[in-house]
Amino acid sequence: MTERLAPADDRVPAIPPLFRLQWEDAQQSYVLLFPEGMIKLNRSGGEILRRCDGRLTQGAVIAELNTAFAQDVGADVRAFLALATDKGWVTWRPAGATP
Q: What is the pLDDT of residues 4-20, one digit of tens each?
């Protein structure tokens, strides 16, 4: 099986306009809303996607999460972002490029 890779750590992930990330009290989790439905995210997925605001590089997202979870979660973040990219939940741009 080939491992999917997210772009390099110096690229900026963002949730495209088609999707909206929000906290749902009823679900007690973050959800990703889109015209055809909703995706309920687990805690890790929500913590990753809420940092994909178009300002932080993947490396900065990983650094924040390493601190938040007090462990190295880089491989897991990259794997999740690769999956999110494949599903169209995240788009990428070079650091410093205008969103």
A: 667 889 999 999 999 99
Count of CA atoms in the C-beta half-sphere (13 A) of 13: 26
CB atoms within 10 A of CB 7: 18
Pair 92, 85: CB distance under 8 Å: yes
**Nearest residue to 51 via CA among 27, 28, 67:** 67
pLDDT in tens, 21-74: 999 999 899 999 999 999 999 999 999 999 999 999 999 999 999 999 999 999
* Residues pairing with 31 in the sheet: 22, 40
Q: Is residue 15 part of a domain?
A: yes
Domain containing residue 39: CATH number: 1.10.10.1150
